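Cont'd.
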Amino acid sequence: MDHSTPLSFETRFFLQAAQVEQLLAELLSSRPREGEIARPETLIAAMRHGALNGGKRLRPFLLLESARLFDAEGPAVLRVAAALECIHCYSLIHDDLPAMDDDDLRRGQPTVHKAFDEATAILAGDSLLTLAFDIIASDETELPATVKVQLISALARAAGVGGMAGGQALDLAAEKVKPDEAEIVQLQAMKTGALIRFACQAGAIIGSATDAERESLTAFGEAIGLAFQLADDLLDVTASAEKVGKATGKDAAAGKGTLVAFHGVEWARQQLNGLVAQAEELLAPFGEKAGVLIETARFVAYREY
Amino acid sequence: MDHSTPLSFETRFFLQAAQVEQLLAELLSSRPREGEIARPETLIAAMRHGALNGGKRLRPFLLLESARLFDAEGPAVLRVAAALECIHCYSLIHDDLPAMDDDDLRRGQPTVHKAFDEATAILAGDSLLTLAFDIIASDETELPATVKVQLISALARAAGVGGMAGGQALDLAAEKVKPDEAEIVQLQAMKTGALIRFACQAGAIIGSATDAERESLTAFGEAIGLAFQLADDLLDVTASAEKVGKATGKDAAAGKGTLVAFHGVEWARQQLNGLVAQAEELLAPFGEKAGVLIETARFVAYREY
């Protein structure tokens, strides 16, 4: 990205989302790659349906901007960002399945199992998850092998049984046995927090940051993850379905415990202010360079969709 | 393994299966690992149910013996073998789901979605798939980063949209539109062939084999993959459910096209002889050292379960 003409945060955000979208479209071509036998047409179409959906691409943005903090940018970083988005998209496809959250719509479009069928949706999710590791490990991603291995290790831990997938399991269990506050915090840290934390951590890994810097970015990622979930829970209470692009009021209807349900809207707004202040403090040592990431923290905390 | 006392093929096979099973049990402990937040009890139990099921562990065995051809053995190789088995087990859990092959039993035990529920089975599969990459990338797997990256890349290509997952999609489509012979060959090369080919290729990668050696092992893996599928199709026609440990006669009942259905049992037996001869020829340059792998080819081709 050209630094000579400063872009507004929104422009920067949408521009990078478009770059991620374009790269994902290339990676999800129907042409088989070296080592692959063939790419079945319907399965690729289902993967594209689930991944090329005009999402906000928040996680890739956090990764790209975190890496830029350490002067790392270019095609390889974009590829890691796209890999991360593959993991996020796989999780949405599987979460939407009838056996899970049973959602028919996502971003105003039929979910993958509605547009195709359940079996195809399961396989499309599996294939996007697998593709994520393929992309990072690929020769075309020009990063040192040691960096790739660190990224793959951290990503797998963030996404697997001890992270996102485990969090979804806890979320499903929470429909039967209401979790207490500590359990909700843990559930959310796993289900949505882990991948957002990884996004920021990955920037530090790619940028060969010092241990202290990496810890700052990880803590920043945790704050953003908390803010993201709180804002989401708030929106479920306060916003209209039209604006958010998915059904709202679902948590309350499902009797789902959220921190907003425990402590109320005002408390949540104060927490968000606190998290934004914390994010600013964590990145203070980086000075002006961290401006975009701090704006991202505000965007995540105060977004209306 | 101690080379001073030569073991029978069967002993060697079962001994290594036991080692893989033990390592999988350790890897699927409920204790969270570095970078993980918590491991939900039920999800770990479902993963264990799907992975610690006394399977033959053929793919790990092929990987271990292929690596041994290049004098590579030890804990790191065993870990890669266990990672490969995680991928195989994830695919069985997802294939058994109601939306896919809808199987209630596997190896005489309830399938994961029967023992738990569908959502948990989906997440257990997702988590085993993710864990496979975690294991290979982990610091505890003491291999050079360049080797790990090659392994992860080849494994992801073998398992994803252009390999195993794509093959399962083609298999599901084959229930609606009957595939021709060429399509069956491609489907099987993807669905079962790709992972078996990877097992042999991985041994060459870990053992830093020359390009020519790696090609021989890859071709050997392809021959084993073909033999495995042909033997499976034969067993579906000729064996009893009791012996195979799963329902037989299913392919014919489903009107599923197999090469055995096209060409008959005698043709299939001759093909298997040809594949075993081909396997022997491919490994001839390795001399006596390749004895176990050649025995494995015979076992795969002529097995009765």
